[in-house]
Amino acid sequence: MSKKGVLLVNLGTPDSPSTADVRKYLREFLMDPRVIDVNPVLRTILVKGFIAPTRGPKSAKLYQQIWDEKTGSPLLHYSKLQQQLLQDRLGDKYMVELAMRYQSPSIESALTRLKDALVQEIQVIPMFPQYASASTGSVYEKIMDIVGKWPTSPNISFINSFHDNELMIETFANNAQKHDPESYDHILFSFHGLPQRQLIKSDHTHSYCLKVDGCCETLNDTNKFCYSAQSHHTAKLIAQKLNIPKEKYTICFQSRLGSDPWVQPYTSEIVAKLANEGKKRLLVFCPAFVADCLETVFEVTKEYGDEFKALGGEHVQLVESLNDSPTWIDALEKMVRE
Ligand SMILES: C=CC1=C(C)c2cc3[nH]c(cc4nc(cc5[nH]c(cc1n2)c(C)c5CCC(=O)O)C(CCC(=O)O)=C4C)c(C)c3C=C
Ligand SMILES: [Fe+2]
Ligand SMILES: [Fe+2]
Fold first, then answer.
1. 3-state class (DSSP) for residue 299
2. Which pTM value belongs to this model?
């Protein structure tokens, strides 16, 4: 009997922290129409003419600071561990492959390995807890582009989002317990940001997201695919699990690129506000990521840490991501088996 295929897909990372490889990564990533969703001519000018040439060398310097001599990019390192640990759990009736939406290992190569092993059923898990067109949606599109051209199509299923997955929530809560959350003045749930227009586009009613007051603060039937609403929901579930009162935490969005408005509030502004209020110690969750990466290790710990200290704060502590935690592998196993 043929094996069942499981394909874990994360975002992607450069092949090395050299400027050339970071530029190559940024070009592939940012030329995706779901990521920079403007007209193709403008996107090409922006990415090839401005962002890759200018951000490339800057990002390369950042990647050099998080790159491990032996294991390389943290995102790829933890993704490989997740793949191996899930394969061990599922045993030889399953074949677990790993791919990155951008750069390596490519989705095409992972699908080819599954095809060569005569796998007839593939379960795809885009490794993004909250649905966004720029992340999950782009993985769907890429996979359907490839498989749609095969002479015979396997059964394919996708996990659309897992923003409320109990074992994921438990893993973030367990990881926070290691830092004694009560000893912090304030807690941030900092999600990757998105341009506001992408939230508006994802609203099928065209009249709710960013049009109604407090639209995305609670998840309901109208906004159930809204990235911001799902992010708020994840944060509330972690806060409930840890009994963190409402006034002690803030939900915010990081990593803004360009000058268009992104989902708010911005993490950087919240960090500054809290420092100005005299807060000294911040604990930061990044629940849009299932593995530590540039956006957690560098942006939160170093960038926001430095900003907070420059304004009188003392310490910013990142809650480690799901990485290779056994309860997170339990979560993945359960997603596959159910
Ligand atoms: C228009 C720009 C971007 C959108 C939209 C966007 C959405 C988005 N990204 C992630 C996850 C990750 N992004 C990462 C890095 C990263 N993201 C952007 C831009 C957008 N992301 C850039 C330019 C970069 C590169 C780094 C930099 O120059 O700042 C990463 C980290 C990768 C790593 O190698 O460590 C992740 C993960 C999600 C989930 C998302 C939509 C919700
Ligand atoms: Fe990103
Ligand atoms: Fe919304």
1. helix
2. 0.97
